[in-house]
Amino acid sequence: MNRSRSVPPGGSGGGGQAQQSAVTKLAFLAGGGGGTGKGSGGLATVLNTRGGAMIMKSVSIFLASGRRASAVPRDRTKSGERGQSLDRRGQQQQQQQQQQGGRLRDSRRNRKILARMDELNGKLNPKMLEMYKRRTHFSKIEVEALCKIFRKLVTNASLNSKALAANNAGVIAKAGSSTDGIDRSVFRELLHSTFDIVTEETLMERIFCAWEKGYEGLPIRLEGWILGLSTFLKGTQAEKTAFCFRVYDLNSDGYITKDEMFALLRNCLIKQPQDEDPDEGVKDLVEIALRKLDMDKDGKVSFQDYQEAIAEEPLLLEAFGQCLPSDRSTVSFLSTLQAQEEST
């Protein structure tokens, strides 16, 4: 009769080993030590080593992910703060630039207004007075006298325009005539009565248009009045040559062509009743002028041709009609300015 042997507690049977292994795992996972048996001690050591490594790795991963998770909001916060700070700085700089630009525009506008007021009153501040003295052949006293003459001409033209409008119901006074400068009608009268320029209508118009470069055909401003008279009365040979060329270059293309010569000379000739074809005489004069002035022989007169020809023969300066004052009128006008200087 077979009797089963009882396994004493703490024996080396398989159930005890399994139970001890399970206890060892639980104890390890719970943080306890290893088993006391010889067989279980090796397993516990192995489990302890492997489990510890796994737990340390898990803890490291957890802590690293936690650091990254906490760092991202901080980085985002910092970058957001930096972005907001940059935006605020950019807005402040933009506002400062806009304010500075506005102040500059206001300053320029004010300077223009003041300069315009000075121009209308015929007065100049010291800086403008010195600038015109440097740019012209006039003294400061002469510049001041020219400013006064300019003011009188503009004021008289305005009063005449208003008087004409008052006496004639069909005539409307030119708006702002006192602020536009010297118009062509006043200028033509001045050329004729003050500077002894007696010429035909086309040339009168050309002198007016060429007077102030860049403002062709517009009323003459104070600046154009002073600079133009500097050339007109005291200009060098080069300055007068440039002015006369602008007058004769009817279409302002940089050349005096045959057609322009014909138009200028035709009105200068006195037609005789016995002349069958007066234009033939004008054509002959055009050919003579070309031979004298067309230095490169291309059939038209450039500014360089004109300069070279005038340098050789100064009498050709006004070959196509008078556009400079007579010597007598120049002396008379300058003596008036000098008298103003002496009385000051």
Could you characterize what this model shows?
One of its GO terms (molecular function) is calcium ion binding. Keywords: Calcium, Metal-binding, Repeat. By secondary structure, the chain is an all-alpha fold. Among the domains are: 145 residues, Orthogonal Bundle (Recoverin, domain 1); 87 residues, Recoverin, domain 1 (Orthogonal Bundle). Helix content is 70%, strand content 1%. It has 13 helices and 2 strands; from the N terminus they run αααααααααβααβαα. Strands 1-2 form a two-stranded antiparallel ribbon. The longest helix is centred in the first third of the chain and has 84 residues.
Radius of gyration, Cα only, in angstroms? 51 Å
SSE pattern, N- to C-terminal: HHHHHHHHHEHHEHH
* Overall geometry: extended
CATH architectural arrangement of the domain at 101-167 and 177-235 and 325-343: Orthogonal Bundle
| Beta strands, count | 2
The helix content is over 70%
User: Which residues form runs of ≥5 with pLDDT under 50?
Assistant: 1-47, 171-178
The CATH topology of the domain at 101-167 and 177-235 and 325-343 corresponds to Recoverin, domain 1
Alpha-beta classification: mainly alpha
Order of strands across the main sheet:
1-2
- Indicate the mean pLDDT: 74
Estimate the strand proportion.
Answer: under 5%
Number of helices: 13
Largest sheet: 2 strands, antiparallel
The N- to C-terminal Cα distance equals: 161 Å
So what's the CATH class of the domain at 101-167 and 177-235 and 325-343? Mainly Alpha
